[in-house]
Amino acid sequence: MNEQARVQTCVIHLIRNSFRIASRRDWDALKKDLKPVYTAATATAAAVALDDLEETWGGRYSAMIRLWRSAWEEFTPFLDYDPEIRRVLCSTNAIESLNARYRKAVRARGHFPTEQAALKCLYLVTRSLDPTGKGQAR
């Protein structure tokens, strides 16, 4: 298989889903034990932290451990980046938001006479993004 794109799961969603499985009274202890998994320096260190998590919580929340193990291949690319970059990459919300804006713009116009017209539409949507919320274009 030719690897041209790296697929990564949203770490925020993994963490949120972990807490949905757990009882609210265990959240503080679970937060402390889960953090070494997604803040590990390497995939090997994260695997060790996940094994420790399973040892502590596996009996009570085996579904949570299965959740992390089933998403492991899509989670580990996240660990290849520096911690500063991880803060940006941990969530796919920005990408999902951009894709939603693209879909809305394309759906509003229906069809395009040329490929260049479609690309211009997407370009204009991208230009109109306002990261500050103050009406400023990038």
Overall description:
The protein has 138 residues and is mostly helical. The longest helix has 17 residues. The chain contains eight helices and no strands. Helix content is 64%, strand content 0%. It folds into two domains: 79 residues; 35 residues, no CATH class.
Main traits of this protein?
2 domains, about 140 residues, mainly alpha
Main beta-sheet strand count, sense and barrel state: none
- Class from secondary-structure proportions: mainly alpha
Average pLDDT taken over every residue: 86
Instruction: Return residue spans where pLDDT drops below 50 for at least 5 consecutive residues.
Output: none
Q: State the end-to-end CA separation.
A: 37 Å
What's the arrangement of secondary structure elements?
Layout: H1 11-21, H2 27-38, H3 43-57, H4 62-70, H5 72-75, H6 83-89, H7 93-109, H8 115-127
Helix pairs in contact: 1-4, 2-3, 7-8
In short:
Required for the transposition of the insertion element. Keywords: DNA recombination, DNA-binding, Transposable element, Transposition. With 138 residues, the chain is mainly α.
